[in-house]
Amino acid sequence: MGRYLARRLLLVIPSVIGISVVLFAVLALAPGDPFEELATNPNVPAEVRASLRASFGLDDPVMVRYFRWFAAMLQGDWGFSFASRIDVDTLILQRIPVTLLIIGSSQVLALLIALPVGVYAATRPYSLFDQIANTLAFVGFSLPTFFTGILFILLFSIQLGWLPFVYRADISATGWAWYWEHFKQAIMPVAVLGLFQGASWTRYVRSAVLDVIRLDYVTTARAKGLSERVVVVKHVLRNALLPVVTLVALTMPAVFGGAIVTEQIFRVPGIGSLLISAILANDTPVIMAVTFVLSCLVILFNLLADILYGWLDPRITYR
Amino acid sequence: MAGSIPASLTAESAAALRARRVSPGAEAWRRFRRHRLALAGAVILAVIALAVLLGPLLWAVPINEIDFSAKLQGPSWKHPLGTDDLGQDLLARMLYGGRISLAVGLAAMVIAVVVGTIVGAIAGMSRGAVDAALMWLTDLFLALPQLPLLLLIIYLFRDTLKSLVGIEGGTFILIVAVIGGFRWMQVARLVRAQFLSLREKEFVEAARALGASPTRLVVRHILPNAVGPVIVAGTIDVAAAIIAESTLSFLGLGFPPDVPTWGRILYDAKDHLDIAAHWALIPGLAIFLTVLSINYLGDGLRDALDPRRVM
Predict the structure, then answer these.
(1) CA B157, CA A27: separation in Å to the nearest integer?
(2) Residue A295 and residue B251: Cβ atoms within 8 Å?
(3) How many helices (H) and strands (E) does chain A have?
(4) What Rg do the C-alpha atoms of chain A give, in angstroms?
(5) Taking CA atoms, which of A246, B130, B267, B311 is between 20 and 30 Å from B7?
(6) Of chain A residues 281-300, which have a CB less than 8 A from chain B?
(7) How far apart are CA A5 and CA A110, in angstroms?
(8) Is A287 in contact with B143 (Cβ distance < 8 A)?
(9) Pick from A81, A107, A105: nearest CA to A94
């Protein structure tokens, strides 16, 4: 396991470099000066702009600029937000816990839907349950997250008045009431993301289980007299999970995209809504830093998926 | 298979076999028809396409006629889908916006399929370093967070393109290019996988032995056999591109306000949910119905174009 971990960790380096090259290339190819905004801003004196230009080394050759930018990014020196007037790393550190909480809970919800439904549908293929689950899955991943969010607000906030549709960071209640309020306002964003992911994963789980359940070793397990529960949970599921883990890792970029949309609809103060407001305010350092952080999070989750893969599949560990 | 044909095959049944032989297209159509939901999806999609193509000619209400006396109205005979906060007719705006949403989806799909096929074909035909480098690039693009990058690129390049080709054309080119540029990876992987197995097949070897050039091998012999999964992936890409465009417009970063794409109408409507729910529901349902139909269509095509699947 240790050697596998080390090898996998080494593979992260080229990914981070690749992503940083793409990001920097986009920034460098962009026409105009990214600090143009400052030139028209009367609150920023000319010498501050010049020193900012110098601190970013905008007049150096591209390679030098890239290495300096990349080194600064790695050290967490992400510059200064024009709009919020604080350091970008402080800003992002303030915003990131909410995003991780929402994304994390929605992934758990998605797994809680996809695993049981997918497995149950696969053990009874083409039954009524399977057909209903399949139809709902199609509907679920054809509904764009922004529309589901609006439907939820219409139903639960406006028609029924059960849930608040603006996410508030400053809840004044204390004790259990504080937790309850937070729970209530997180339900809709988590459900929107979780249902969308759950719908597409259900199909993956179903087809993965269907592939495994016909294999001979499953018949052997049944012939030994094991109960159907043990056969499915202990013998089938562990092998069926392998392709699912890969697919979950592959859908991570889409999850972050969905998180941006959900945060924007429900005004969740996470890094997704920070990105949108930064774009609307032309706040280049924040935009670059958020994109970089989101890319790194995608790599991190891919890494976690691979480690999970190594744990699920003992054959990989010793390769 | 030849061994399973009984030796005592009579002349009649041989003739019958020949008579039942059908072209691949007809066979695919026969299989496609059996997937009822895919057929329904195709019909709905055709209706939507016809509506947005011919609709503006029949329903000749201007999309930007402001009438404050009729603002935020529900459906009525005068405005079958109601009006928005400026009293503009929603049916006219939906029909016009549908043209753009569908055009973006199709154009982005074409870019994704063309780029993906070229990358996949090059990777599949060349072994070694070129293949490895292209696949590394494909994996890198798959790991990129697409929406943040889409937003970043649009933010950085928006103004220049607008000044170059005008506000509508510039946004259209930018959005189509960027969405297409982030969706080619799946096609590239599919095409490469197909090429890897097809290039070792006997018929390709025969063509090579007859002296066919590599280009001819790819274009005439390998590519036509690899086209099934690409069609399916392309179909799904249209849906993904429509969602991507709507998402951008919904975030207020897609088309300008005077171009009412479905996502943009939804974006404008989301602050009036409590008094004019129809305004948000109509574009949302249109996107949903289109995407659902395309997804079912892709599912049906997957069944119809896979010769190994018995139907």
Answers:
(1) 10
(2) no
(3) 15, 0
(4) 24
(5) B311
(6) 282, 287-288, 290-291, 294-295, 297-299
(7) 27
(8) no
(9) A81
Number of H-type helices and E-type strands within chain B: 13, 0
Residues 6 or more apart whose CB falls under 8 angstroms from that of A263 comprise A99, A102, A189, A269, A270, A272, A273
User: Hey, what are B200's tokens?
Assistant: 């070792």
Torsion of CA B134, B174, B264, B183, to 10 degrees: -10
Restricting to A residues 162-191, those with a Cβ less than 8 Å away from any Cβ of B are none
**Residues present in chain A in total:** 319
**Residues composing chain B:** 311
Touching A: B residues 119-138, CB under 8 Å: none
Whether residue A78 contacts residue A88, with contact meaning beta carbons closer than 8 Å, is answered with yes
Q: Count contacts between A and B (CB, < 8 Å).
A: 127
Give dist(CA A97, CA B122) in Å, integer.
43
Long-range contacts of the stretch B171-174 (C-beta < 8 A, 24+): B171/B254, B171/B255, B171/B256, B171/B259, B172/B100, B172/B103, B172/B104, B172/B255
Q: B160 vs A15: CB contact, 8 Å cut-off?
A: no
CB half-sphere exposure, A133, CA atoms < 13 A: 27
Q: pLDDT tens, A176-204?
A: 777 777 777 788 889 988 999 899 889 88
What is the mean pLDDT for each group of 10 consecutive residues in chain B (311 residues)?
47 55 77 81 89 79 69 68 70 84 91 92 86 86 82 80 73 86 88 86 89 86 85 88 88 80 84 76 88 88 73 57
**Which ipTM value was assigned to this complex?**
0.79
Contact status, residue A140 vs residue A198, Cβ threshold 8 Å? yes
Q: How far is CA A177 from the centre of its chain?
A: 29
Output the pTM of the full model.
Answer: 0.83
